[in-house]
Amino acid sequence: MPPMEHENVHRVALVAFPGIRAFDVSVITEVWGTDRTDRGAPAFDLRRVATDTTTPIPMRGGLALHPDRTLTWLNRADLIVVPGLDDHLTPAPARVLDALRRAHARGITIAALCGGAFTLAQAGLLDGRRAITHWNLVGLLRAHHPHVTVVPDALFIEDDNIWTAAGTAAGIDLCLHLVRQAHGAEAAATIARSMVTAPFRNGTQAQFIEHPTPRADRDADTLAAVQEHALRRLHEPLTVADLAAHAGMSPRSFARHFTAATGTTPLRWLLEQRIAAAQKLLERTDLPMPEVARRAGFGSEVTMRQHFASRLATSPRAYRAAFSAGSATGGSSPIAR
Question: What pLDDT, in 10s, does the model give residues 312-329?
Answer without folding.
Answer: 888 999 999 888 765 544
